[in-house]
Amino acid sequence: MALVLVLALLVRALIVSGSDHAVMLERVQQHEKEQRNGEQSWVDMSALLFTLLHYWKIWFCTGLFVFLFWNMWRSLKRKQHEEGGQQEQQEREEQVEEVEREEQQEQVEEEEQLERVEELEQEDQVEHVEQEEQEEREDQGEQVQQEEQVEEVEQEDEEEEYFHHSALTRYIARRAWEKMQGKATKCVLVEELMSDLLQTYTFVCSNSFYPVLQPAIGVGSAFEGWSPCEEDIVYRLLVPIKAPHGHVFHPELGEEGEVLARNSRIRVELVCMCTREQQLGDVLCFLHHSEEELSQNQQPSLLQTLCTGSYLDVQKTAAWFNKQVPRTWRLTHRAHRYGLKVLPSSRSCKLQVTDTSSGEKVHVELLFGVQQGNLDIFLSSQNAEAVFTPSTTWPQSCAVAERKYFEYVARTAGPNSCHLVCLRLFAHILVGMGFSTYAIKTLLLHLLAIIPLEDWRRRHFLSRLENLLQYLQYCLNDKVLNHFLLGNATMPDEVVLPQAFQTASPLNLFQHLEQDPDAHSRVLRDFKELKDRLFRLLLFGR
């Protein structure tokens, strides 16, 4: 409002001063006219000075306007300063409140954390108490178990006194157990050595077009725990092989209607590698590049190296691996401690491993096999029963399935089972006779399926030996001993067999006795010799 009033006064003063200025201008012009005419007088000088005094109104109004404007500007600045101070004070109050809230929240979190720590301490105390109680129960259980074992041992010793009429017989049984414990250590050692060999080869030759070697599987009497002669043990392992990239294996299972195929072959087929060639660029597709380009830029295919025609050749495969072994073994971390020598073999890899510190020798045989799907049946490089086995023949092998069954029996029957001791003793006395150890093994497998496993304790040792003799005599008289895995519908789930095996007709392992009367007469004489050897071994230890 004051500003409007000042502006009004200023406008009025300007108007008045404007009119005065016009009058003064007129008088000045008249004065100049008079001066030109020479009629100037000192009387008009006072009038001119009086006229100039009218300018003070303009200067006064201008100063008043500046003063009022400056005063308003200061008021505005003071007001803004006060508002800014209030805002800063409000912000400081908000910050103080926020800090207080954070402190309260931290205090709450600390309290919650303390509560959780206390709860955890209480839980730890409870767990500790429960663990102590559990340990006490376990100690009590172990003590009870030890007492039961002591009672069982005492009972077995009492029963041994009844069954084992000779102290020498007890010595033989105990010695058999000790020998089995010694062989287990060598089995582990052989598996470790062969694992080092195969892993090193896989690392060195990972990008080749040769068969891809898988971890070896121990098979045969050594890994089943019943080798007949400890000093002549041959540790056999089956090395599964898979087709390299760009190839695929197609097993062909011998003649139609033959369940346990002895004339199986493995057909090798090339497959397209264009996708890998485009993505990785490390190979050339065998199917879509010329032979000249492949020969100049890539290693030959498996069909060109280890196959005869379209079928994988056993002898070429064994010769190829035997050639790789010495160079690969030198790269293993155990080469300085164990010497390795490759022995002649056409269908497998036979090795002699020598401990450089003790001079002890261990004989190992590596067989090669192609697995049938996810089954425990392999097409292996072992020799067939025929006199001559073609180099492209890969007989069907049940060695892995049989070892798995022995492992199942060992887990179910427990460590005091005598089935392996019985088999070991029979295998020992069969050396030099016409019976095959596989026939005795098959007899034992049938008895394990017939007689409950709890009746194979150490105290039943002599009874089970007698059962083996009786069962062998029965099979020889009837000239019938069926293969254990064929036509057997009671196999445990741990052993994975083809469906055709369970529904197949039994395969008679003594069929040759029906066809050859002279052979039957010889095995009957051998059976009498077998009984005499067993009795001498039990009674006299030799």
UniProtKB/TrEMBL annotation:
Residues 94-113, 132-141, 148-161 have a biased composition (Acidic residues). It comes from the Eukaryota. The chain crosses the membrane at residues 46-70. It is found in: Membrane. Residues 82-93, 114-131 have a biased composition (Basic and acidic residues). InterPro entries: ITPRIP-like, Mab-21_HhH/H2TH-like, MAB21L/cGLR. Pfam families: Mab-21_C (PF20266). Residues 1-18 form the signal peptide. Its main location: membrane. Keywords: Membrane, Signal, Transmembrane, Transmembrane helix. Residues 435-487 form the Mab-21-like HhH/H2TH-like domain. Residues 82-162 are annotated as: Disordered. It is a single-pass type I membrane protein. GO terms for cellular component: membrane. Belongs to the ITPRIP family. This is Mab-21-like HhH/H2TH-like domain-containing protein. The gene is LOC124418390.
